[in-house]
Amino acid sequence: MKSATEKLIFNSLDSLENRQNSVETKLGMVESRLTTVESRLNTVESKLNTLGNGFIDLSRRVFKLEIDIADIKEKVSYIPKLYDMVDKVVTELLSYREERMFINNRLDKHENRITKLESNFSLN
Are residues 85 and 68 in the same domain? Predict the structure, then answer.
């Protein structure tokens, strides 16, 4: 038969094996959870990379837009000069038309006078 000490040792060994199995089971669950966390982190990292690429693309577009806006501002700066030039041309054209109307009116009056003179002197 087994002595009480042997029984105590065997019981202690059984208890230690049970605890070891329990610890191994818990470590397996922890490892499984760590694998899940790692998978989620990989997914998050992938999404962050996608967002980073999107931000890079957006920053390129913003840079191009800033260049386009600067180009537009430069071109728009010429509009006041253009308006001034057009205003001068239109003013000159109006002046020319007024002068022409005045001259035409004088010519009509002269023609009327000449016609009267011719009719009075029978030159026609």
Answer: no
> Quick one: 67 and 83 in the same domain?
no
Does one domain contain both 64 and 18?
Answer: yes
**Beta-sheet strands, E only, within the chain:** none
Q: Are residues 14 and 57 in the same domain?
A: yes
Domain boundaries, position 5: 1-75
Q: Is 97 helix (H, G, I), strand (E, B) or coil?
A: helix
Q: Is the dihedral of CA 21, 25, 30, 35 positive or negative?
A: positive
Contacts for 42 with CB less than 8 Å, ≥ 6 apart: none
Buried b (16+ CB within 10 A) or exposed e, 68-88: eeeeeeeeeeeeeeeeeeeee
For the chain, the domain total comes to 2
Residue 86 to residue 103: CA distance in whole angstroms: 25
Model confidence over 51-96: pLDDT tens digits? 999 999 999 999 999 999 999 999 898 899 989 999 999 999 999 9
pTM of the predicted model as reported, rounded to 2 decimal places: 0.46
What is the average per-residue pLDDT within 91-105?
95
111 token code pair? 């023609």
